[in-house]
Amino acid sequence: MGAVVEQLFSLHGCVAVVSGGGGWLGRPMVEALCAAGARVIVAARSPQGAREKLADIEGDWTVAQADVRDTSWPALIAEAADAHGRIDVLVNNAHVGRGGTLQSATSEDLTEAFDLGVGAVARSIEASRVGLKQALAAGGSPSIINVASMYGLVAPRPQLYGAEGATNPPFYGAAKAAMIQLTRYAAAELGPLGIRVNALAPGPFPAAAAQADGAFIQRLSEQTMLGRIGEPREIQSALLYLASPASSFTTGTVLSVDGGWTAW
C-alpha cells in the first residue's frame, strides 16, 4: 500500500511553476512540491528576497524574476516549457495583501486586484497550455491550481478585524470569487485536453505579524469548527493532492482548507 500511496502523490520528473512562492503560504507550497520530487520554478518580483525565504528548502528549486502584472510572467512560463519540455503543475498564488473598505477602496485597488486574481491567472493558463500538453503526452497528469480564498466564498465579518479599514478589503474577495469562476470555466475548456484546473480556498492563515495580536487570533479561531487558525504546513497536503495524480479525476472544484469556516 505504501508504494501505491507514494506513486499517487509523486511528482518525480515533473516541472512546477509557482507565482507568489516566497509568501506566507507560498513557501510551504514550494517545500511540498520539492519534497514530492518536482523541479520548481518560482516567479518573484524580487528574486533575492524570495531566495532568502526559500533558502533552507531542500530540493530542486530556482527563482526567476517575473511580475504577474506584465508580460514577464507568461514569458517565464513559456521559457520553462521550452527549457524543460513540459509543465506539469502551475500554481497561481500572487495576491494583494492590504486592508480596506468600500469607502476607502479606490478604482485602482479594484483594477489591481482583478488583474492579479483574474487577468494574470488567465494569461498564465494560456501561456502554460503548450507545456501542460507536453506533460500529458509524456504520461503526466497536468494540473493548474489557482489559490483563491474563503473570502471568495463568504463575506468577511468586519467586527473580527477591529480598527476601521483593517478588515479584509472588498476588492480582494471579489477578485477571488472571480478567480473561482474562471477556474470552473478553464476546467470546462481544458478538460477535453486532459488538463485539470482546480482552486484552493485557504481559510484563516494569518501571517506571523498578525499573530502578535492574541485577541484578534482568538476571534478568528472562534469562527472555525476546529477552534483554531491554520498552520502554513496544513496547506501542503491539499496542494499535493491537487498537483499530483492522486486527483486525476478531480477538476473544476474548490477545495476549502479553512477549519470549517465556510461550512457553518
TrEMBL record:
One of its GO terms (molecular function) is oxidoreductase activity. Coiled coil: none annotated. Signal peptide: none annotated. Keywords: NADP, Oxidoreductase. SUPFAM superfamilies: NAD(P)-binding Rossmann-fold domains (SSF51735). Pfam families: adh_short_C2. Belongs to the short-chain dehydrogenases/reductases (SDR) family. This is SDR family oxidoreductase. It comes from Microbacterium limosum.
